[in-house]
Write a structure and sequence with these properties.
It is a single chain. The strands form two sheets. Strands 7, 8, 9, 10, 11, 12, 13, 14, 15, 16 and 17 form an eleven-stranded mixed β-sheet that branches. This protein folds into three domains: 6-136 and 305-324, NAD(P)-binding Rossmann-like Domain (Rossmann fold); 149-301, 2-Layer Sandwich (Dihydrodipicolinate Reductase, domain 2), CATH 3.30.360; 346-427, 2-Layer Sandwich (Alpha-Beta Plaits), CATH 3.30.70. A hairpin with a 2-residue loop joins strand 9 and strand 10. The protein has 14 helices and 17 strands. By secondary structure, the protein is of the alpha/beta class.
């Protein structure tokens, strides 16, 4: 064991998460030696404007000069909470190549450049940890890499975006339409001024890429993940979900199949008795199936100042322990396989199709004929009379390839009896 009792770190960024990390580090200061084998000192904090007054933060810690941190040999840990690709990527790579250890919460960066960053860490025997990149304060990266390492993971299904889960919760419980629920989420600070990354599924897609890479031990990047958001979900879809004993959730899903890895984000009808169905408001949950452990679920706050800071500081404590016991770099890249990512068109799912049609004899036969021609099997049909000679049909299919259903849908649109395709939602 080293004689050293103090480890210095630098914090890159002092926004919501960075502020939480600093506060939590200060809160834990008195017990850090007992927890990690050494004291932790936040020696420098990189900010854009060091003249800005920040309550509770000593001004002498602030710097706008990255080189000052990079070239300080006493700073051993760099904590990156800036977000975005650049300059975060360059600074992390420079830190790793200088032999410093890095903890990050940057899902965008890890999802796209994880291999490059892990390779850089391995080349110098440095730690590169990113628990906070997925699901905020919920432990999922470490369990996948360590606790569940003896399993062949078959599937990961998760609610990993708190904004969309809050919106869908308000739609389900309060009967709101999407726009009303989004406005409420924005008012409460759950949604950004530009919510596109959340409501279109991009944020969840990046997290799916990271989880799939680790779970299946093969590289999956964001561009491999099919993404579909919640903007088309209506109060009427919610009513039908209730009628079927389901709730609608935006899920990230990755499956390891014989034909390759399936990775996607989309709204899904989930049975009310499934554990994911009870995840409300801004909470997140990840459901994992392994061949040895069977089913496990991780649940908690998926974002926020202190939940995310909790994950960041957990990684920092791990790094400190590794430094103290001379075992840094022990868990590097675990993507040693080269499993192909299946084209999403080849993935199989069950579908719930809502459509408005002419209310006259032979309509169901025509629709069934089109679906049958594309090998789409019907498991359930619900018909509601609307008005003006139109009926609303909700058709539930058996499992079928995405491509086959998509082709059938295009043909259904061309039928003269079809007035409107309302929505298509996958079923768990």
């Amino acid at each position: 064991m080293h004689e050293r009792k103090r480890i210095k770190a630098a914090l890159l960024g002092l926004g919501t998460v960075g502020g939480g990390v600093y506060k939590l580090a200060e809160r834990q200061k008195n017990e850090m030696e007992q927890k990690a084998g050494a004291e932790l000192e936040i020696a420098k904090i990189l900010v854009r404007d060091k003249e800005k007054v920040r309550e509770g933060v000593r001004t002498e810690l602030l710097t706008d000069n990255w080189t000052e941190i990079l070239e300080d040999p006493q700073i051993e840990i760099v904590i990156e909470v800036m977000g975005g690709i650049e300059p975060a990527k360059t600074r992390i790579l420079e830190a790793l190549r200088a032999g410093k250890h890095v903890v990050t919460a940057n899902k965008d960066l890890v999802a796209e450049y994880g291999r490059e960053l892990l390779d850089a860490a391995e080349s110098t025997g440095s730690d590169f940890l990113f628990e906070a990149a997925v699901a905020g304060g919920i432990p999922i990266i470490r369990p996948l890499k360590q606790c569940l390492a003896a399993n062949e993971i078959g599937e990961i299904t998760g609610i990993v975006n708190g904004t969309t889960n809050y919106i869908l919760t308000k739609m389900y419980e309060d009967g709101m339409e999407f726009d009303e629920a989004l406005a409420k989420a924005t008012e409460l600070g759950y949604a950004e001024a530009d919510p596109t990354a959340d409501i279109e599924g991009y944020d969840a897609g990046r997290k799916v890429a990271i989880m799939a890479s680790i779970a299946f031990r093969s590289r999956v990047v964001f561009s491999d993940v099919y993404t579909e958001g919640i903007t088309k979900i209506s109060a009427r879809d919610i009513l039908y979900a209730k009628e079927f004993g389901c709730v609608i959730k935006l899920v990230g899903r990755a499956r390891n199949t014989k034909g390759g890895i399936e990775a996607a984000v989309y709204p899904m009808m989930i049975p009310e008795d499934h554990p994911l169905a009870s995840v409300r408001d801004s909470f997140n949950a990840v459901f994992v199936h392994g061949d040895a452990v069977d089913d496990v679920m991780f649940y908690g706050r998926g974002a926020g100042e202190f939940p995310t800071a909790s994950a960041v500081m957990g990684d920092v404590i791990d790094v400190m322990r590794d430094i103290r016991y001379n075992c840094t770099g022990r868990i590097s890249c675990t993507c040693y396989r080269d499993t192909p990512v299946k084209p999403f068109a080849e993935a199989e799912n069950q579908f719930v199709l809502r459509m408005k049609v002419e209310n006259r004899p032979g309509v169901l036969a025509s629709i069934a004929g089109v679906l049958g021609a594309h090998q789409v099997s019907i498991s359930k049909v619900v018909q509601k009379i609307i008005t003006d000679g139109a009926a609303e049909l909700v058709i539930v299919t058996d499992a079928v390839k995405e491509m086959a259903f998509g082709n059938a849908l295009e043909d259904l649109k061309e039928l003269e009896i079809t007035r409107e395709i309302g929505n298509v939602i996958r079923e768990y």
